[in-house]
Every structure is written in C-alpha cells, then in structure tokens.
Amino acid sequence: MLRVVHVDPDHADARRVVAQLDAALAAITGESGAASFDPQDCRGAGACFVLAYDADGSAVGCGAVRALAGDIGELKRMYARPGSGAGAHVLAELERHAAACGYRQLWLSTRRVNARAVAFYERHGYVPVAPYGRYVGRSASVCLGRRLP
C-alpha cells in the first residue's frame, strides 16, 4: 500500500528522494536537472510537493506542481524508485491537487533520452505541447501536457 502526502520540499525525506532523482537523471542524461527547480516554486497557493511512502514507511517517490501561466500548472521533480509503483500514485495526487487549484492543464518537460519517463507520461495521457519557457529551442527536451478533468 502506497501513501502520498504533502510535505515541504526541505523535509528530510524529500531531500533524500530528490537526491535519488538527481543521481538517476545524471546517469540517464548527464545532468541532475536540479538547476531547473526552485523549492520556493512549490510553496504557497497553486503549488505543492508530495512524497510517496511504501508500506514500510520508506519514501519511494516525489513530485511537485507549480504555477506556469494562467490555468496551466507545471509538473516538476517527478520520481519513483524503479519497481515501487509510486509514479502513478504521485501523478494522480499532483493532478488532483492541480485541478483543485483551478488548473485546466498540466505541462512538463523531460529529456528525450529519458525514454522511461516519456513512456510513463504518454501512458497517462500526456501529449506533445509546444516548447515553453527555458525549453524553447532545446532539442534535447520534449514538452508534454494534458488537459485535466
């Protein structure tokens, strides 16, 4: 049984899971992705940071939502320890929270080389959107989005 809880991104478990994410991204892409995330962005109205805990109480996944533009939120720092099954639970909670905050769409960017992440988002209904913000002109990135129910 997985449990997803809202926490501050400076929570000790959050720092540990984000360090796992950083290491995984560095192994896949050569960069941790940490430079594109400011913990302050997922504090306050319209934002959140969540952790997924397994039945043993270990943090096995994380993710964040922040405001992007208008009725669009952005997914950040999504991670699930391989084999944990946490990814779908984290994504569902972030989508639920985003809809409750009034977002009608969620967008994200990931590296094309991160085939596991791209396939995960596609399985959950995310489709290509035009590059936005810092991702414009970056051919290594793919931007995906989904309308929320």
Overview of the structural elements:
With 149 residues, the protein is α+β, with helices and mostly antiparallel strands. The chain has a single domain (3-147), classed as Aminopeptidase, CATH 3.40.630.30. It contains three helices and seven strands, in the order βαβββαβαββ. β3 and β4 form a beta hairpin. The longest helix is centred in the N-terminal third of the chain and has 18 residues, at 12-29.
The number of strands is 7
Structural class: alpha+beta
What topology, given as strand order, has the largest sheet? 1-2-3-4-5-7-6
* Assembly context of the chains: single chain
Percentage of residues in helical conformation = 25-40%
Order of secondary-structure elements: EHEEEHEHEE
In CATH, the topology is named Aminopeptidase
Catalogue the unreliable spans: none
| Total domain count | 1
Which secondary structure elements does this structure contain, and how are they paired or packed?
Elements: E1 3-6, H1 12-29, E2 48-53, E3 59-69, E4 72-80, H2 86-100, E5 105-111, H3 115-123, E6 127-128, E7 141-147
Parallel strand pairs: 4-5
Antiparallel strand pairs: 1-2, 2-3, 3-4, 5-7, 6-7
